[in-house]
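Let us practice reading a record.
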Amino acid sequence: MRISVRGSAPCDLGPVRAAARAALRPFGLHRDAALTIAFVDDAAMRELNRRHRGRDRTTDVLSFGHDLPAGIRGAAAVAHLPRELDGGLDLGDVVISAAQATRQAARRGHPLVREVAFLAAHGALHLVGHEDETGAGYREMVRLGSAAIAAAGLVPARAAHHPVRRAVSR
C-alpha cells in the first residue's frame, strides 16, 4: 500500500506507516491501494471538525473516505470501494492534528510516535467502515489500533489509556 504524507509530521513516519498498513492488512487490500496521511495544526483541524461534524473544537483525527453502505466494514467494505480509472484504489485521507497528538501523548505518558501511529491506524480503520460511535465499536477500534501499533514494533497502550475522540467524517 502506498502512503503519502502531507504537512509537517511531528515524529518518525516509519512506525506510523507500519501501523496504518498493519491496521488494514487483514482486509485484503491490493498493493495498489493508496492512503494519504495529512498533518495539520489545531486551527485547520478545528475548521474541518466544524465543517464536517458540526463540532467547533479541535480533535485528534478525522478520516475522509468513500461513502460505504451502512453496517459493512473490513473486507466487505473494501469490496465496495470504487476503483480509479487507472485501476488504483484511493482509500482516502486520514487527517491528524499534530498539536493534539502531542498533548495526548504527554497526558498519557507515552512517546509521540506511538500516539501518532495509533491515530493513523484508527483513522485508516474508519476508511474501511469501522466505527467508534457505539461502545462495542469503540472497544473494537481500540483493540485493532493497539494490535496495529504492536505490529509496527511499538508497545501497545492498554485500552483504558487510549480514549480516541470519536471523530470521523465520511
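A brief commentary: The domain at 2-161 is CATH 3.40.390.30 (Collagenase (Catalytic Domain)).
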